[in-house]
């Protein structure tokens, strides 16, 4: 197939993914991403074989599709095939997207999300909950500590030469929020599969930390729309009514700036889960603090039970 035809196909697929996000961000996007992945894998294999670099257009299309692929794996209920360890070419392409993709997601964190989702899929399918026979828990903890060790300030500083604006503070805050959100996401996977695991951080504190980081960005800031994924994680995790109200306002503000269906649907999901979690937590009228009951409600399990593929970006 001619090179121009491949670029045209990728551009169409990228537009179709965008249309799905504008519509709702649920369901059909995965077919477009699966198709894009097949094309990209062949392109990367071909590039490795002949040493021909991607054109700027192709690099942009491929890198942005790869970001959506990784983000999509975080809340996909149907199986999304993952290729295992990323090649140097794939990681380089993810790094290319750091400065121009709407999520401003650090490339080092994206594979951790996808690897965590894969552990959840495999372990959930085979039900290997015995840590003596399943290395999955060790792998998941390694992912968690890799996310925890990520340095947002260094990342934002290194990104500045490639960033379209002088935005060091905002890039740092977005990266801090993403790092903490990935830690929460991986923690919930670990606790869903191995509930007795002792983790080093209080997840409620981490959820509040995400909100603190995101509070540095306001409507009108160039990176404001990059706050959706970590805000969604904070909303899923927090049991504090004030923090939930903050997350709700954030998605309402995102809707005003970019009225995409994914924003509306994300808020709808949060409200559904907040309502459902009333069966798993108790509210005291004295100090408005939530306390977990013995069933240890986990939003990862609840999202899977809804049976919908979500793409939050």
Give the tags:
single chain, 313 residues, mainly alpha, two-stranded antiparallel sheet, 2 strands, globular, signal
Structural class based on helices, strands and sheet pairing: mainly alpha
Helix content: 55-70%
Our count of helices gives: 13
Distance between the termini: 31 Å
Low-confidence stretches: 280-295
Helix-strand sequence: HHHHHHHHHHHHEEH
InterPro entries: Fun_TF
Protein name: Acriflavine sensitivity control protein acr-2
Signal peptide: 1-24
Subcellular location: Nucleus
Describe this structure in words.
This is Acriflavine sensitivity control protein acr-2. It is found in: Nucleus. InterPro entries: Fun_TF. Keywords: Nucleus, Signal. This protein has 313 residues and is mainly alpha-helical. Helix content is 64%, strand content 2%. It contains 13 helices and two strands, in the order ααααααααααααββα. Helix 6 packs antiparallel against helix 8, helix 8 runs antiparallel to helix 9 and helix 10 packs antiparallel against helix 11.
Task: Summarize this structure briefly.
Helix content is 64%, strand content 2%.
Task: Lay out the secondary structure.
Elements: H1 3-23, H2 29-50, H3 56-74, H4 88-97, H5 110-126, H6 136-148, H7 152-159, H8 168-193, H9 203-214, H10 228-237, H11 241-257, H12 261-276, E1 281-283, E2 290-292, H13 299-306
Antiparallel strand pairs: 1-2
């Amino acid at each position: 197939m001619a090179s121009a035809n491949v670029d045209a196909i990728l551009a169409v697929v990228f537009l179709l993914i965008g249309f799905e996000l504008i519509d709702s961000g649920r369901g059909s996007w995965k077919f477009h991403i699966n198709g894009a992945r097949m094309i990209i894998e062949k392109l990367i294999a071909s590039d490795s074989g002949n040493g021909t670099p991607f054109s700027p257009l192709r690099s942009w299309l491929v890198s942005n599709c790869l970001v959506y692929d990784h983000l999509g794996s975080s809340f996909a209920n149907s199986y999304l095939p993952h290729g295992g360890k990323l090649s140097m070419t794939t990681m380089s392409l993810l790094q290319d997207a750091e400065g121009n993709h709407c999520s401003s997601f650090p490339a080092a964190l994206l594979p951790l999300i996808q690897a965590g989702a894969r552990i959840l899929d495999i372990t959930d399918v085979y039900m290997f909950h015995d840590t003596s026979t399943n290395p999955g828990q060790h792998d998941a903890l390694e992912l968690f500590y890799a996310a925890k060790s990520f340095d947002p300030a260094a990342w934002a500083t290194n990104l500045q030469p490639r960033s379209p604006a002088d935005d060091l503070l905002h890039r740092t805050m977005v990266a801090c929020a993403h790092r903490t959100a990935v830690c929460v996401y991986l923690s919930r996977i670990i606790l869903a599969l191995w509930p007795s695991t002792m983790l080093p951080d209080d997840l409620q504190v981490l959820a509040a930390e995400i909100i603190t980081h995101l509070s540095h960005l306001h409507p009108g800031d160039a990176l404001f729309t990059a706050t959706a994924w970590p805000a969604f994680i904070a909303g899923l995790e927090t049991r504090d009514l004030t923090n939930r109200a903050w997350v709700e306002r954030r998605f309402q503000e995102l809707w005003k700036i970019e009225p995409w269906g994914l924003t509306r649907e994300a808020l709808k999901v949060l409200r559904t889960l907040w309502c459902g979690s009333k069966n798993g937590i108790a509210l005291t009228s004295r100090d408005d603090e939530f306390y977990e009951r013995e069933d240890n409600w986990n939003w990862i399990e609840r999202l899977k039970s809804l049976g919908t593929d979500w793409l939050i970006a």
